[in-house]
Amino acid sequence: MLLGWSSGNDSTDTMQQDRRISLIRQALVFQLKLFADGLRDVLLVPFSLGAALMGLLRSADDPEREFEQVLDLGRRSERWINLFGTHDVTAGETDGAASMDELVSRAERVVHQQMQDGGVSEKAAAALKRALDHLDRSARGEQADQDKQKDPET
Predict the structure, then answer these.
(1) Which tens digit of pLDDT belongs to each residue from 5-60?
(2) 118 and 55 together in one domain
(3) pLDDT value at position 40?
(4) CB within 8 A of 18, min separation 6: which ones?
(5) Structural contact between residues 120 and 114, judged by C-beta atoms closer than 8 angstroms
(6) CB atoms within 10 A of CB 51
(7) 154 SS3 class
(8) 12 and 59 share one domain
(9) How far is Cα 35 from Cα 54, in angstroms, rounded to an integer?
């Protein structure tokens, strides 16, 4: 049995194994989200200071404009990362970009399918590349129609 002792009962062993695998997945996804959240915070520090400085120097009628834009970016990225799973992110709420949970699920499906097909080498690398390319285009707001042109298998 994976990561545990065998109890002699196949049904119990399978359930315990499934729970352990689920815990490992949750921990890995959480670490990925923590990394993304930390990176976002590191980037927002200079952006927010620069936006506040621009607003002060500009001395126009709306000095908060740039700073508010940075805050809005922070809110949207918080929903996209969804660190603790508290946001119910539906399609279109992340400016066309898939949420981090959706990206992880897509990658997980590709790997799972490749494992079932028995071809986890070049075939998996190509499928992951296609998925990452799709996500990159999605994040930039390009149409999904381009995916069908580049990947006629789907």
Answers:
(1) 444 566 777 888 788 888 988 999 999 999 999 999 999 999 999 999 999 998 77
(2) no
(3) 96
(4) none
(5) yes
(6) 20
(7) coil
(8) yes
(9) 29
Can you say whether the dihedral through the CA atoms of 136, 119, 18, 23 is positive or negative? negative
Q: List the domain range (segments joined by +) for residue 83.
A: 1-87
Residues 42 and 64 in one domain: yes
The pLDDT score that the predictor gives to residue 89 is 64
Do 83 and 101 have their domain in common?
no
In 3D, which of 27, 29, 32 has the Cα closest to residue 3? 27
- Contact status, residue 13 vs residue 6, Cβ threshold 8 Å: yes
Residue 122, Cα to own-chain centre: how many angstroms?
24
Q: Which residues of 97-134 are buried (b: 16+ CB within 10 A; e: fewer)?
A: bbbbbbbbebeeebeeebeeeeeeeeebeebeebbeeb
Asked whether the predicted pLDDT for residue 152 surpasses 80, the reply is no
Overall domain count for the chain? 2
Do residue 69 and residue 35 come from a single domain? yes
pLDDT digits (tens, 9 = 90+) for 58-108: 877 889 999 999 999 999 999 999 999 887 766 555 455 678 888 888 888
- For residues 151 and 113, membership in a common domain is answered with yes
Question: What's the pTM?
Answer: 0.62
